[in-house]
Structures are given as C-alpha cells and as structure tokens.
Design brief:
- The structure is a homodimer.
- By secondary structure, chain A is an alpha+beta fold.
- Chain A contains 15 helices and 19 strands.
- In chain A, helix 6 packs antiparallel against helix 9, helix 7 crosses helix 8 and helix 11 runs antiparallel to helix 12.
Amino acid sequence: MTSTGQVWTRPLPSGVGAQAMERALEAFSAALGAERVLTDEAKLREFRDPFQHASSDDYTASAVVMPTTVQEIQAIVRIANETSVPLWTHGQGRNNGYGGPAPRVKGSVIVSLRNMNRVLEVNEELGYAVVEPGVRWFDLYEAIEARGGRLMLSIADLGWGSVVGNTLEHGGTYLPYGLDFQMQCGMEVVLATGEVMRTGMGAMPGNRAWHCYKRGLGPTPDQLFMQSNFGIVTKMGIWLMPKPEVYMPLWLRVWNDDDLAPLVDTLRVLMLDDTIRMVPQIMSPILLGAVFSRREQWYTGAGPMPDEAVERMARGLDTGRWMMRFALYGDEAVVDHRFAKVEAAFKRAIPNCELWGTKYTPEQFATIQNPSERVQAGVPNLDLNAMTAWYGGEEGGHIGFSPIAPLTGRDAVAVRDLLRSMVEEAGLDYIAGLMPLTTRSFVHVTMVIFDTKDERQVRTAYDVARRLVREAAKRGYGEYRAHLDFMDLASDQYSFNHHAYRRFNETIKDALDPNGILSPGKQGIWPRHLRNGRA
Amino acid sequence: MTSTGQVWTRPLPSGVGAQAMERALEAFSAALGAERVLTDEAKLREFRDPFQHASSDDYTASAVVMPTTVQEIQAIVRIANETSVPLWTHGQGRNNGYGGPAPRVKGSVIVSLRNMNRVLEVNEELGYAVVEPGVRWFDLYEAIEARGGRLMLSIADLGWGSVVGNTLEHGGTYLPYGLDFQMQCGMEVVLATGEVMRTGMGAMPGNRAWHCYKRGLGPTPDQLFMQSNFGIVTKMGIWLMPKPEVYMPLWLRVWNDDDLAPLVDTLRVLMLDDTIRMVPQIMSPILLGAVFSRREQWYTGAGPMPDEAVERMARGLDTGRWMMRFALYGDEAVVDHRFAKVEAAFKRAIPNCELWGTKYTPEQFATIQNPSERVQAGVPNLDLNAMTAWYGGEEGGHIGFSPIAPLTGRDAVAVRDLLRSMVEEAGLDYIAGLMPLTTRSFVHVTMVIFDTKDERQVRTAYDVARRLVREAAKRGYGEYRAHLDFMDLASDQYSFNHHAYRRFNETIKDALDPNGILSPGKQGIWPRHLRNGRA
C-alpha cells in the first residue's frame, strides 16, 4: 500500500520478470545491506523527474541502490549481469530540465552515488582535486577552503549538483576553467564486466602524473564515458585554478532586442584575443524576470507575453533586453587594462549599452551577495533555482532545450528568432540564455517553463520541445544534451552517413556491455536487445 | 634487381601469402592508378625509419599507397579487408625518434596521406582551419597568411610534420594553444569497415558548429583515434589564435645544474596563475650543444662527456646548465606587466639567473631570425633538425625516450638523475629537454643520439632505451609516446588491474576492426589474430 492508499506495483523493465527482479533486489541487499536498497514508493518518489507531470509514470525506477565503495559498485554490476536488470547511474541526479535522476527505461534500478562523496585529494601545489562521484560543488568548495583555500573551482549555477555528474553530462561551469572542458584529468571507471579500469597515466600502477597530464600511452577513453553508458565513473581528477589577485564580476545591459548581434560579435573578438577568459551568460529579459518576479505582475492575458509587456518588465526590473554576466580575473593591473578595453569595445559597438562591475580580492569572495557574482567567484549557492514558478503554480517545471551554435551575431539572432517564434506559437513565453558561452560557440538554452500541475500546459511544452529539436536541426543547430523524453529524437538528428556515429556507439556498446545492463537508452545508445523497439 | 644489384624480396606480413599480396597490389593499382602504388625498393627506402641501422630490415613495408581522396581510402580499406593485408597510415611520416613512417608489422602496406594535403577552410571570424591529413605546418602557415594573415597556428619545432599526424600522436606544439591539447575540434574518420564517420557536431548533416564546439550529443570519440589504430582520420578542425599585439620571446639561463628545481617550481607558479601561457622548453646543455657544435670540439675521450667538459661547453656556447625558451603574448601593457613579474619571480628564486627577450609586432614575425623564436611565433622552419650529427657521423639518429612527470622541481631532478645515470652508464651522453612542458606536467625527452652507421652504438642506444622504459615506470614515470621498437614494452608498463586498459582497447579493436587490418601493433594494441605473439 502506498501513502495515498493505492496499491503500488513495482515497474519491471521490459524482458525482466518479477522473479528475476526479486532475486536482484535480494542480492543487492546482501551486498550493500538492506537499508541501502530503497524499494518503497515514497522513497522512490524522490528519484523521479521533479518536473514531470504528477500523473505520469514514465521513467519510473523499480528501486534505488546506494553503494559507498567501488567494490559495492562491482557487486551491483555483477548482479545486474546475472539477472539482466538494467541500471541507471547518477552522482547527485540534479539533472533538472533533462529528466532529473529518472531512468530512460522504466523499471531500471537507479545506482545513486550520492553517498559516495569523499574528496580524496586536494593538491594545492599542482592545482587539482580528486573526487568521488557523489561530491557536490558545495562539498568540493568546502574541502578546498578547509585545505588551504588558495585554489578555486569552476562551478555550475546550482551548488547541489555533482562535480562528476555535471562533467559526465558535458555540463557547463562559469570560471576560466569552464572554457572548453578544460577541467577533467584522469578517471577510474567500473566497466560493464565489473572490472576497474584507470585512464590516462593512471593505467600505470603508481604513476605520479595521473591527474597532471590529460592523456596516457595509447588512445584516451575519458570522453567515451561522458553522455554515454559505457561504464560507471568512480573517481575523477579535476583541475583547480589559483585564486587571482582580483576578481571583477561585470554586467553588460543593452536595451534593443537586436543589440544581441553586435553584443555577440564584440564578445567573440574579446574572447578570441584572451581579454575575456571565462564563460559568460547572456540572458533574455524573461529569464531574469522569472528569477525576480512572477508573470502576473506584468501580464495576465492569454498566449505568450507580448513584446510591449516584455519591454515594460525589462524597464521595471532593469534587466534590459539582454543582460550579460561575465568577469575578469587576474592581477589588478591586468584586470584594469582589460576592463578599459572591454568598455571601449562595447561602447563602440553599442553606444547606449551599460557596463558596470566591482573588484574583489580573494578574502572577500565568500561575502559577495549577488548569486551570479558568487557563482563566478566559485562560491556555490542555490539562489538561481527560483525561476520555474514563473507561471504562478507552486510546482513549476522546465524542459531544457539546448542547441549549439557558432558564436556569431548572425547565428545568435537566427536561433533566437527560430526558437522564439516556435515557443510563442505554442502559447508559451520565450525564456532563454546563451549559456554556457565559450570562445567559438554557445548553447542557446531555451527554458520551456510550465506548471507541472497543469496537464495541458505540460503536454504543450513537451510537444513544442519535440518540434524544436527537429526544426533547429534542419537549420544546422543540434542539441548538446537531451531530455529523457527527446533523447532518441535528438540522437536521430545526428544522422550523417546513415547514422554512422550512432552505429559506431552501438558497436562499442555491444562490445563493452554485451548484456546491455548499463543505462540503456542513454543519449540514444541502446544495447542490441532493445534496439529494435527504438525506431 | 635493386639499385645495388641484389635481388630484393618483398617482405610479407605474417599470415599473408605472396598471392594475396599480389592481389592486393593489383587492386590498389586499379583503384588509385599504378603510379600511386609504390613497390620498388628504391622508392620504399624513403619510408623506412631514417634512424634505423643501415643493415636492419625490421619494420620494412611491402608497398606504399598514396591516395588523394576519402573514396580512395575507403577502397584501400576494402581491399585490405578482402586480402588481410595490414595497413599502416601516416600524414607525413615525420615521426622521427619514434620510428619515422615505418610500420610496426613488417610487410604492412603504408597508406601515405602526403598527397592529401588541402587546407579546406580558414575561418578568420571564428578562428579555425580544417585540414586534410597531409597538410604540413608549412602548408597551413602559408594558407593562413594567404587568407588574411590575422591568425596564428601553434606549431611544432620542425615545419615538415603533418598537423593531423602530430595531433594524432599527442605531439607537442609551443604557442598558447599548445597547452593541454586545446586545438583539435571535429574530425572525419574512415573506419575499418570502410565507412565514413564524422565526430562531434559533424555527426549532424549540415551542422554549423562542427569546428566550433568540441563535443556532440553522446560520447566524444575524437581522442579514441589518437595513438591508436581504430580509424583513418581524413579531415580535422584545428583552432587558431588571433595574432597578439605583441609577442615577446624570452630566454632564461641558469648556471648550476641544480637550479633546475627552483626554475621548475617558479615556472609552475607563473603558469598556474596564467602569467606564462604557452609551452616552454627547458634544454640541457648538450641538447643545445648538439645544435650549435660537434662533440669533438669539447671532448674526444671515451665514454660519456664528463661534467667538466659539459661545463666548459656550457660556458663556451653560453648555453648555461639549463636554458629555457618561452614567450609572452598579448597587449603590450599586459606583456610589460608580465615580463616584470616573471623577472622578479626568477631573480628571487635564482639570483644569478639571466633573462632576456625582445618584443615583436605581427608584421615582424616572419623576419625573426632565431629558429626557436620563429617557432614560438608560429613561423615554421627546419633549423632545429641539426642536432643528430653530435657524434660526428654523417648519418646521426636518435631515439626519443619521453616519460611524463608532474611539474615540480623534485620530479624534474629525480627524472634527470635517473635518466642521466642510466644513459651515462651505457657510455652515451645525456641530451635532454623538458618539452613539451605544460601547466602541471612535462615530458622529459631524452634524445638517445647515435651514429646510424655504428652498429655497436646503435645497439647500445636501443638497449639503454629499453632499460629506461622499465626503470622510469618503476618510479611512476610513463612514456607519453613510444618508439616502434618499444611500443609493446612501454604499453606493458600500463598494467593497472591486470592490464585492464589494454584489454579495454583490445575489446574496442576487435569490435571496430575484426580483421585487424588497421595499423596492427600501434602503441601496443594488437588485433586478436596477432595478440598471442606479442607477449
């Protein structure tokens, strides 16, 4: 019986009988202790997609196992191979907007690594840390501060996420080391066979450079374990930057919608020449409006918020039509030189733009109040999590639709126009950010925000997100990361030469994981026995 | 009959009969035209290891095929699958010190991509180029200059090498983009099945960000095609940096052998805090002595050159006991600030060190005379190729022994002492450089230099190199790249968990290339049918 009085039936993955599942759960309990095998519905609810419609039971797990050691993970993999029960792994499972901790295949057993959360090393001399997959931004920040505090970590917007999990999902972070995936160095992985492998120099026992040099002798498999289902990462090296003499968070505000183009073109020049060396965000007015206000303050009519109301809100909240957050880091003399250069460049390109910022020294970082400025200082927080209640419901959700584009003004405007017209045609508001944005490309995140209690709005949101995947791809823009519900569709768009890339992944999948037990369906990669059902 | 009058017998790969080879050669000729299938001994000599002993016939190819299109490469792969003839691919084959263009398996057919040398795109706006695998540093430099000249390429020391080939071998380059493998973005690959795959965003037809964003949707396979035998790379994106306002090559000279430790420790701090942002080289006196002089000028006795003679040479040539070449790039104000900081830091750490440099603006780069300063300006040349005649023979050769170590003074001294003592024990001179050197690690290249006509010296050199591989590994230092002759031995050292990494590679090899036709033995990765013979 569930807490609501209904009988709850444990979902079973296709092809797995109730007996096999029972055997698996007993074996998991024997290996981990019963208290670390969660099977009752109330506890499992925490591991659903937090933004799915309340009545939906797609992507529901059958159980959650919570190992704390590599040996326990090996035991879990062994049991899965013996019983054919599929696993679905997360570090913290804060994959919000893309399905949260929920598995692609209903009835999968979630391997939650939340309790495998030790910071194994902080090396101040060489500037790196080694973490387990359950370590959050909060945890690593604390460990760095406790062990000398001379280093800083490039973090994501929300501090609750797993450092390893974010890395494995190609997630963005915003400090200088967030540029172009510079941080990860060296991994330990449990393969589908249950074997432990170390990558890079770690493949040599006792090697001194495992977390100092990004490759080894032979091919480097690290990126093969990202956005995939080829192994379970159990340790990871991550590079840390010395705190600079000065950190100067900056804000740039422009007042015309089409200022986006010169903004992006000017930014690219300043990033290519190394003047701006970190990961900016360019935010649409409603993205900021959703953090600082509710929709009803500005508009209560039907359909998408009209431009006139957006303009009024932009004035009322002082968001401008586009707002960029970014920062400078370095010796004060260099920061001063660069600030002057940045100011001159933007004023030349967009005469009525506004630019401001404040310089901080390292001992001030933890005292900064503005959440975005804290993020760029490497100080984790959760303040930017407020936006999903935009439509006024108490249970706001969003789908992240996130195509990649080259960093040009032309592309920024083209993607904006395409996505805005389609989202608004569906009756929803266009809520977007160019983030993360790096030297040659940006992710255009479109937050398709809805009230999870409004079934019609939820359906509309999913429908438009599906259309966006196809229409963006037709114009040469592909998703960098896909929601559970669109993983196959997004993967379908990467069809060069009759899906050569997908077939390559399938060949590797079948070789490494012949029973298909690791995260089947992840980013569109299916094991052989589930492949036919996909298309 | 060969030019020397002897009958030359075409070597056959193990398991391939003369008939199968004949069929393969006929099919190659039919596909490419007979003039692009080289089979006579004189022409094949060019594709041997230039540094192997004259009488050796290990690693001799049976033929060379020279395709110019992707379709021709597909045909070659198809023929190899049909006849079981193994292939061995290079871009330019300038892999000197590691075996040159020669194949690991005697009798392999070399696929030389030297004529597949088009620069397909130079994108000045977004800062990248797209090249075919035969494009040399010289070629890409010229193309960049011809198409606007606003960008610069991070290059290797010798301009004749292939941009793609160097990248695929984890080779170093010396400008800012040489740090931590930052340059490669997006690939096209012919797989062992003959199929063409595009990686990253290129897996989506018509995607606009193929060479702007380093990953795709799903796992990123690019690094799987480096130091491996999983495919033949046919196109590659490479990032280019805008020319800075000022480039300032710098030289740092120290006069005590043990100054190496504070030099390295000071350098690490300056690289971690972004003051020095490129790839320095720290050179031993004989490495410089071998470029600018001959050994007999300083010492004519037997055995390794004694410290007294090294000291005399260091004074005579003004090399110091260690010399670092490095550079600053950026706005003049920033370069000036950083030069003052660099000078203060090194003078504090090593009071009697000497530091000097000159500032250049972009229009001066091509006029710079010093070859190292040209390299760091991205202007390719061949001047640094002189050193291998150190022992006076006309046919000098070297083996590169290249372990990786963390960037600390302790490690630099420990590796120096280990390698010097072993090389000198073998009667040879210690000729070394810390290069490439990046923010957290360095390659300690030991040039085991010999006269290729002196069979005893050649044998001594190979023997000591073999011992070095084992002894360095015992102390936690592994090779970043291995000579043909030591590939298996070097790979043996990466033995964590009963060679889990090697077995992982073998699993992938068997899945992607079941007939084992692509570069068998490359970096110790053997196809199933040749695996037993290895150990």
